[in-house]
Design brief:
about 200 residues, mainly alpha, about 70% helix
Amino acid sequence: MRRFAQRGLRFVDKNKKPSNWSRLYRQYGGWPSLLRSPYFIIACILSIAEWRLWHDEKWTEMARSILPTLAGFSIAAYALIFSALSDSHKNILRKRQKALKGRAPLLIVSSTVIHATIVQAIGTLYSILYASKPFPTIPGMEYYANIANIMFSATGITILNYGIILVIGSVLTVFTMMEIVPPTREPKPPSTPPTP
């Protein structure tokens, strides 16, 4: 179990095999998909618009109250996807497609919802760490410490915004999955012989 947990945190294991993280984000589309994502761009724009919060620590309280709930929602969305799919549908959606750069639709959907959960968990941890102020201010460096606090605060607000906006992505992912799943045919009732 310990070996599994350690492998999950590496990007490449000792045998040069991709780790859980690298496999997950390869299905997600990698860094280019993250940076070009409209959700991430909107989160950055909102963070700039919320510049007054950069000087305040209220965002940490918001993050600690909002993001764990949203992470629970993302996990519920993930469970909903898999409960709604039959084994035959899962097998159809596991097939890799050239149009998706050799990725499977089911794994893309899974990686999207899991990505949302990871961002929301990281945002919660980041807000706790920021609020705890783990590093003391060195005398004479107050100006630079203030700039560093503003930068770390802006980063935290961006993660908070991104975690909230990814709920929309999770909802749309569930909708997309339900839309592309082929309908199942109703089994025909057995025919009964005519009665004399």
